[in-house]
Amino acid sequence: MNATGAPMRVSRKLVVIVAAAAAGVAGAGLYAAVGRGPERSGNASTPETRPAEGAAAAAVTLKPRTGRTLSVGDASKELELIRPTRPKLAEDFTLPLADGKSFRLADHRGKVVLINFWATWCGPCREEMPAMERLWQQQKDQGFMLVAVSVDTNAKSVNPYLTKLGLTFPVALDPKMDLGNTYGVRALPSSFIVDREGHVVALALGPRPWDNDASQSLIEGLLK
User: Structure pTM?
Assistant: First the structure.
């Protein structure tokens, strides 16, 4: 599915990065165009009534490391991340969390932050979330923060989904796509990696194996 298949208001702030990523993976069928989900198209099927895809989708047990350590550059290549030619400060934001609290990006300066845009109706998002949970469990005490930003228009669908998959990382709510537009998001999942100085240093368009050696090495390298 082409990442530009759904019209939306897009800010110029990070659209260059997103456009470069879209050009590299368009047609791969690994991500969902924003605005194509069941809740936006009027489909009566809801995320919480559909089973997760595959038996592994609900598994969040930790996987052992193989001991392979990569440089940040090699890890980025293995994960097929888009790296901007020049670091750009990530746009600060404050969003409500699904648990009733709030999340402000600036409060986590000094940490490596993974900002993941997703929706309950997005199949590729379900694919990568168990791996995100494993990365969160392994790195959260080392100076790593993960926030998954739901763009579901119906926020009530989010908590049942999180419970069903056993996800514990912070989940923010962006039902009007205000933050998604600011970050130039055109497809789901889209993930932005922010370094300890607050710069966007990498972008992933589509799901990634966030619990493998390359992902662990990337986070650990950025934390040094």
Answer: 0.78
